[in-house]
Specification:
Length: about 180
């Protein structure tokens, strides 16, 4: 049996030597440390919402035009619906309710401006609503309560409103 020469030894490329790979890894890590952003991005938080007492007149500017926030009242509670500005803000299907007491319109299922009470007058007592309309209003109140923060309560004109800056309770508490 003739003797076969041993297979040629595989030679390692000088570039793939373990020491070179280690040095390359260290160089990449150092480059990463030098090139990465030095400051972390900061998250800006909106200012805290203070629970206040609003009158129909002090609620009016919260319509998304006069002030950037959009508030509306339902059953005496004032909700911050700014996150739903596409619905309640300018150009939205419920824009008539922004800055107003929306209780009657929601109870009756009407989004017309005739459903709004005069902000200079008394708050609508809703005494003439049928039981079906009262149930609809309760459902709407539940919807708003689950989705939006309560930022205050609606009180009659002449009582403490936003101008007096009366703080009833701390930051934007859902009630």
């Amino acid at each position: 049996m003739p003797h076969q020469p041993p297979p040629p030894a595989e030679t390692q490329s000088p570039n793939l030597h373990p020491l070179n790979l280690l040095l390359l890894s260290i160089a990449i890590y150092i480059a990463y440390l030098r090139l990465r952003p030095t400051t972390l991005p900061t998250v800006t938080r909106p200012p805290p919402i203070v629970y206040k007492r609003y009158t129909p007149l002090t609620l009016l500017p919260y319509n998304g035009i006069d002030k950037p926030q959009v508030y509306l009242a339902v059953s005496g509670k004032v909700f911050d619906v700014t996150s739903g500005k596409a619905f309640y803000g300018p150009g939205g299907p419920y824009e008539n309710f922004a800055g107003h007491d929306a209780s009657r319109g929601l109870a009756k299922g009407s989004f017309e401006s005739e459903m709004l009470t005069d902000p200079n007058g008394k708050i609508d007592g809703l005494e003439d609503l049928t039981e079906e309309e009262r149930n609809a209003l309760r459902e709407w109140e539940g919807h708003f309560g689950n989705k939006y923060a309560v930022v205050g309560e609606l009180v009659e004109n002449g009582e403490a409103g936003e101008n007096e800056e009366e703080e009833v309770q701390g930051e934007g508490v859902k009630r």
